[in-house]
Amino acid sequence: MSSRAIDTTPGATGTSPLDELLAVLDLREVDGWGPRGEEDLWRGGSVPGLSRRVYGGQVLAQAIVACGRTVPEGRAPHSMHAYFLREGALDVPIDFAVERLRDGRSFSARRTHAIQHGKPILSLTTSFQEDQPGYDYQRAAPSEVPAPQEAISAFDELAAIDHPRARWWSTDSAFEQAYVGSSVFLDPDPTPSDRQMVWVRARHAIASGDVLLHRALLAYACDRVMLEPVLRGAGKSWQDAGPDLPMASLDHTMWWHRDARVDDWLLYVQEAPTAQGGRALGFARVYTRDGVLVASIAQEGMVRLPA
After folding, report:
1. 45-103 pLDDT, tens per residue?
2. Range of the domain at 187
3. What is the mean pLDDT of the segment spanning 276-287?
4. 298: buried, middle or exposed (CB in 10 Å: 19+, 13-18, 0-12)?
5. How many CB atoms are located within 10 Å of the residue 62 CB?
6. How many helical (H) and strand (E) elements, i.e. helices and strands, does the chain have?
7. Most C-beta atoms within 10 A of its C-beta, which of 76, 77, 246, 261?
8. Where are the beta strands (DSSP E) in 131-194?
9. pLDDT in tens, 146-180
10. What are 290's strand-pairing partners?
């Protein structure tokens, strides 16, 4: 059982890991970079990672923010489709060149590439919509799910372990995770299943209520857990996800249905319906503590499990 309050442990720079992430998402606009000065270009850095590779969820979140900076006020992202093309380097700034595809009466469409060394590392298209009334339906949240305070906290499980991967999931993390049942950080699931439920929230309260920011942060957080049901179902743990078990996100699709704050607990209801050919597919539905469905997510990844 976890009774941990929101954690504010400082990161490497003396600020909390969440504050470091928020600073990275505060992109800087680069003015007049095209032949007529009309293109939209935004630039950002990176938060520390496990290796020299940029965490994919960070680039997703930055790309969403860059696109959102160019749409009419009052329009929030409702869908996103992205491809991860190359590994990103931590020590090189990332440029986001935004293309304004369309601005309609209630929808806006944008496309961007995240660029390093003149080459795209991510390609993303996203759509924005004004808040409008309409028929409202959702699939109900699972019943009788233990509260996050009763689940297994990654902080409690990993904080005392002196290992780079353990520190990345706990001390250096901008988000906390609490598992319904066992995690697969250290050991495989004793009863392998291609389904799991995990509570996720930002490490501390976020002063801003900006919808764009919270939706971008939700994209950041989900990339950490989308392929976990694949490991769980295969009887593997993150301990196995080293040089002998390459894993990487290939493409990512997300639909935001309703507003939610990421500094309150969100329940990810996940499954991995298929794995084949070195690829695997993960789905997730994201609910608030009150059972409101706020997002649906799909991700295909490279997961080179032995046959």
Report:
1. 999 877 778 999 999 999 999 999 999 999 999 999 999 999 999 999 999 999 999 99
2. 17-132+149-303
3. 95
4. middle
5. 29
6. 6, 13
7. 77
8. 152-153, 175-179
9. 999 999 888 888 877 777 777 777 888 899 999 99
10. none
Tell me the two tokens of residue 169: 């999931």
Q: Decide: 257 and 223 in contact? Cβ < 8 Å.
A: no
Amino acid found at 63? A
Question: How many angstroms separate the first and last alpha carbons of the chain?
Answer: 36
**pLDDT for res 2:** 40
Q: Does some domain include residue 76?
A: yes
Angstrom distances, CA of residue 71 to CA of 49, 80, 85, 100: 31, 15, 25, 8
Mean pLDDT of the chain: 89
What span, in angstroms and rounded, lies between the C-alpha atoms of 226 and 268? 9
- Model's pTM, two decimal places? 0.91
Q: Which residue has the tokens 């372990």?
A: 161
Q: Residues 129-150: pLDDT tens digits?
A: 999 999 999 999 999 999 999 9
Residue 35, both tokens: 């032949």
How many Cα atoms are found within 13 Å in the side-chain-facing hemisphere of 105?
1
Residue 301, token pair as written in the block: 């990844």
CA angle, residues 27, 86, 70, in degrees to nearest 5: 30
Residue 3 amino acid letter:
S
Torsion, Cα of 81, 277, 198, 20 (10° steps): -50
Tokens for 59, please give them. 């680039």
Give, as one character, the DSSP assignment of residue 142.
P
Tokens at 245, concatenated: 């078990």
Do 159 and 170 contact (CB within 8 A), yes or no? yes
Question: Quick check: is 6 in a domain?
Answer: no
Domain membership flag for residue 58:
yes
Catalogue the active-site residues.
Answer: 223, 249, 299
